[in-house]
TrEMBL record:
Residues with PTM 4-aspartylphosphate: D53
Gene3D superfamilies: 3.40.50.2300
Domain Response regulatory: 2-118
Presence of the UniProt keyword Repeat in the record: no
Keyword Repeat appears in the UniProt entry: no
Name the UniProt record assigns to this protein: Response regulator transcription factor
Gene Ontology biological-process annotations: phosphorelay signal transduction system
Length: 127
C-alpha cells in the first residue's frame, strides 16, 4: 500500500515514517506539511492511503480531505490530530475520513488500521 503523510510537525512526520517503515508492504510515497503541496503530490502519485492532520501550516486538513475524496474517493484516509474535538470528528467523517484518531491517545492504532486496509474485502460466493 502506498501511503502519503500530511503532517506539519517534523517530529510527528519522522515518528510516523519510522512507525510505518516497520510494517510490511506499506510504502511512504510522500510527506507534506502544506495543504496545496500535499494535494498536488497526492494526485501525482499512486497514493492509496493517507494519514492526515487537521491543522496544517497553510490551511485546514479537512478541506484537503474533501478535495482528495472528490478527486479520488478510493484513497483511504485516517485523520490523526491533537484537535480531536467532537466537532472535528464529525466534520472529518462527513468529509469522507475512514478513521479519526487522537495523536495523544490513539497513535498505536495506526498499524492495525493500515493492516485492515491492506486486506482484500471478502465477498460472498454467489455461485
Amino acid at each position: 500500500m502506498n501511503l502519503f503523510i500530511v503532517e506539519d510537525s517534523p517530529y510527528i512526520q519522522n515518528r510516523l515514517i519510522r512507525f510505518v517503515e516497520e510494517l510490511p508492504d506499506i510504502h511512504v510515497v510522500g510527506v507534506s506539511g502544506e495543504v496545496q503541496a500535499a494535494y498536488a503530490a497526492i494526485l501525482a502519485s499512486d497514493t492509496e492511503a493517507m494519514i492526515l492532520d487537521v491543522q496544517l501550516s497553510d490551511g485546514n486538513g479537512l478541506q484537503l480531505l474533501k478535495n482528495i475524496k472528490l478527486s479520488n474517493p478510493e484513497i483511504k484516509v485516517v485523520v490523526l490530530t491533537n484537535h480531536s474535538t467532537e466537532a472535528n470528528r464529525v466534520q472529518a467523517l462527513r468529509a469522507g475520513a475512514d478513521g479519526f484518531l487522537d495523536k495523544s491517545t490513539d497513535f498505536e492504532q495506526i498499524p492495525g488500521i493500515l493492516h485492515d486496509w491492506q486486506q482484500p474485502q471478502l465477498s460472498p460466493n454467489l455461485n
